[in-house]
Fold this protein.
Amino acid sequence: MTDEKLLERISVNPKVMTGKPVINGTRLTVELILNLLAHGQSTQEIINEYKGLTLDDIQACILFASKTMENTAFMPLTMEKP
């Protein structure tokens, strides 16, 4: 699936989840899916937990996050001690 097609699975609407990016037709935020993955849940576990969710939806969340980060400047989370 192309990047464009994957990204069509994500929407942002100020009336849904206070404008956070969500998987179309759900109230599942990109943030939630990424957090589940970051804490060790497999894609299959997530799909089993949230009926109707697909692997393409999860891949869309990862791609959305990646595209969002492309033009972001970063500061260290902690300051190194001299």
